[in-house]
Amino acid sequence: MFDRFFGDEDDSGDDDPEADVEVRTNAGAWGTDVNVGSGDPSGVLDGDSWFTTHTFDVDSEESSAGARGGTEPSPDVSPRESPVGTTYPRGTFAFPASKPFMQALETRGKNGAHERVETVYVLTGQSATTPTELFGLDDPEYYESATPSSVTTLESKVARRVAASYPDGETPGVVARFHTHPGGTTTPSDTDVGSAESIEECYEDAFGTDDFEFFHGIHAYVEQSGVPSVEERHDPAALNGGVSWRGEQYRHELALYGPRFRNPQDVVIADGQ
């Protein structure tokens, strides 16, 4: 099943105001706060066997009361078989050259079908290098505010929600936390760098371990002139510490950084399915 919607979780930390760490990332402070809608994936991955997109809808009837520390089993979303057969060293992000994968990133990066404001999504995977799960978190439950140039998240709640989707005792091999820069670049702002360590700690606390590879990522996209042909779309090109491709309307660029948001990480384009 492609779309999986999870509702309110039985999260023992939700009543603790200190547990919901507010984290702001931005590309400059301007714009007007808007509500972030609950984006709906486009459905492009229906039937895809290796990659799964999850969106979280607080009104869903499908509950995930089995958040870590809860009373019922969590939905089993892991592990997934990686589409990339080659083994890469830790610290390398293996970007699957897969059209469904890139289409899913475009949908999440553009906040579903809603306002073009900064948003956050998380990629995880069984191996330390290759993502197989995408968590779209553009729901107001996880945000304080979002503008075209900044987003403030309740990051510990986001992290706990991702961790709750794994069975107790299981952790991913990689966690890549992305935020978007609509119309901007992949250069982290001072605010991005200043929040980097606390964001990583939120995921370590949520999973109860630091035994996974952690990446910070920035997803920038800008309007492109002309409409690329079908053959030209979703053809990834490697950059220093990132990857770029052309969609139907936007040129997308992803950059991967280490836990402190300082050093670009190695990115390889790997054959997907």
Briefly say what this structure is:
By secondary structure, this protein is an alpha/beta fold. It has helices at 99-109, 155-164, 190-207, and strands at residues 3-6, 22-26, 52-56, 92-97, 120-125, 133-136, 143-147, 150-154, 174-182, 213-223, 237-239, 242-246, 250-257, 266-271.
In words, what does this structure look like?
With 273 residues, this protein is of the alpha/beta class. Helices cover 14% and strands 30% of the residues. The chain is built from three helices and 14 strands. The strands form three sheets. It has a nine-stranded mixed β-sheet. Strand 12 and strand 13 form a beta hairpin. Helix 2 runs parallel beside helix 3. The radius of gyration is 17 Å and the shape is globular. The model is unreliable at 1-15, 27-49 and 56-79 (pLDDT under 50).
User: What's the total helix number?
Assistant: 3
The side-by-side strand order for the widest beta sheet comes to: 1-3-6-5-9-10-13-12-11
Sequence stretches where pLDDT stays below 50 over 5 or more residues: 1-15, 27-49, 56-79
How many strands, what sense, and barrel or not for the largest sheet?
Answer: 9 strands, mixed
Note the topology.
Elements: E1 3-6, E2 22-26, E3 52-56, E4 92-97, H1 99-109, E5 120-125, E6 133-136, E7 143-147, E8 150-154, H2 155-164, E9 174-182, H3 190-207, E10 213-223, E11 237-239, E12 242-246, E13 250-257, E14 266-271
Parallel strand pairs: 1-3, 3-6, 4-14, 9-10
Antiparallel strand pairs: 2-8, 5-6, 5-9, 7-8, 10-13, 11-12, 12-13
